[in-house]
Amino acid sequence: MSDKLRLAVIGVGYLGRFHALIYSRMTDVMLVGVVDADPARAQAVATEAGCAVFDRAADLVDRVDAVSIVVPTTLHRSAAEPFLRRGIAVLIEKPIAATQADGAAIVQLADDHGALVQIGHVERFNAGVMALAERITAPRYIEAQRMGGFTERATDVDVVSDLMIHDIDIILALVGEPISCISAVGSAVLTPHVDIASARLEFVNGTVANVVASRVSEKQTRRIRVFQPGAYLSLDFIAQTIDSAGLKERPGAARPDIVRERLQIEAVKPLDRELAAFVQSVRTGRPPLVDGAIGLKALEVALEVRARIGG
């Protein structure tokens, strides 16, 4: 590997464009090129990022050390496979795939060929989530809401795979225990897919999480609340604040005082941090924060939620 990591972006739509621009600003990265099904879009992003355009992803296999895969979810496996077979590191936008079989195949290919895989669960790199995780010791009850207005982007998948999977992944990481039971309800509203969903996740240690996701809501809400013995914490993803309440013993008092605090989180761009972590993992071989197996587990839970909704 040269001093500069050779990178490319496969798929430069709304999100892929940001991948290309962020890589282009990294001093230790050489953005080799971009590929997109729309040649005009590929050329526009390449001009903006100062890199070349390639007609096919296959043309990049011998030219790169790593790639970002930012194509529609149904194409993740086919886009990643040529690189994985060559042992090339891959960052795949979440979810890892559209089906469990494709996700499992990606993980197996990576294992077979020694390729590093990171899944783009960008909220794990949210400064608020990282600060919250540091304060969680024994969560017993969790509420998560991720609600917003309708957009045309990502309507090829349902709201569970598009939005709820973020909170599923965060909750799995916070609890760290297997799930014992899943129940869910939801409905299609503006697309052929489920646009609003509510799920209840029960864990073997007794922890319960209620998760709501909507892409047909008037008000944007992104919040997670965690209750654990002696403490309550609430993260507002938008305001980047953590509100907490805890107990403080007072000598001679019949009951402890309730101490409330608001922590303002220093704003950090999660996608910048995520891509920087990917580059660092490729350079050092250090396992990603969200590897293929973790991404696959989040997908499996999301698919089970979707199956429980039915329809």
Describe the structure.
With 311 residues, this protein is an alpha/beta fold. 34% of the residues lie in helices and 30% in strands. It contains 8 helices and 14 strands. It has helices at 14-25, 39-49, 76-84, 100-113, 127-135, 159-175, 270-284, 292-309; strands at 5-10, 29-35, 52-53, 66-69, 89-93, 117-120, 141-147, 179-188, 194-203, 208-214, 221-228, 231-236, 241-248, 257-264. The strands form 2 sheets. It has an 8-stranded mixed β-sheet, with helices on one face. A 6-stranded parallel β-sheet has the order 3-2-1-4-5-6, sandwiched between helices. The protein is globular and about 75 Å long. The protein starts with a strand and ends with a helix.
Compact description:
By secondary structure, the protein is an alpha/beta fold.
Q: What count of helical segments does DSSP give? A: 8
Poorly predicted tracts of residues: none
Let me know the largest β-sheet.
Answer: 8 strands, mixed
Count of β-strands: 14
**Element-level helix/strand string:** EHEHEEHEHEHEHEEEEEEEHH
| Global morphology | globular
Biggest sheet, spatial arrangement of strands: 8-9-10-7-11-12-13-14
Strand content: 25-35%
Search tags:
alpha/beta; eight-stranded mixed beta sheet; six-stranded parallel beta sheet; 8 helices; 34% helix
